[in-house]
Amino acid sequence: MILAYLPYAIAAWVFLWGLYGIVTSKNLVHQVVCVAILQTSTYVLLLAIGYKVGGTAPIFADIPVGTVVVDPLVQALMLTDIVVEAAVMALLLSMVVKANELAGTVDPEELRFLTG
């Protein structure tokens, strides 16, 4: 019974490590990597939500009626999450590059003069 909650615990653990890295980091590139780790926890969570014991692929052409299948909506959400993460990482890394061009550093403490 406790194994049923293991994926949720792993998702929470990965989320907390990503959040810890964001809070304690002294480098913007490291913070961006920690945001990616934090978002990875959503993959584990979506996998845990969509998994069914004994479930097959959601292709309904060759299986009999009443067969247990995994949830195809969760798979679509996973693909959407991957695309969103790629876009967010590209945006954040471009902002880090621009901050490095303006200030010559990627230390968040030294970038305080850039506040508008």
Q: Can you walk me through this structure?
A:
With 116 residues, the chain is mainly alpha-helical. The protein has a single domain (2-114), classed as Helix Hairpins. 64% of the residues lie in helices and 0% in strands. The protein has 3 helices and no strands. The chain has helices at 6-24, 28-50, 72-103. The longest helix has 32 residues, at 72-103.
Keywords:
mainly alpha; 116 residues; Helix Hairpins
Gross morphology is elongated
Residue-averaged pLDDT, rounded?
88
E-strand count = 0
How far apart are the termini?
A: 53 Å
Which structural class do the helices and strands define? mainly alpha
CATH class descriptor = Mainly Alpha
- Unreliable residue runs: none
Share of β-strand residues: under 5%
* CATH architecture label: Orthogonal Bundle
Radius of gyration: 20 Å
Number of helices: 3
The succession of helices and strands, N to C, reads HHH
Here the CATH topology equals Helix Hairpins
Write the topology of this structure.
Layout: H1 6-24, H2 28-50, H3 72-103
Task: Describe the structure in brief.
The protein is mostly helical.
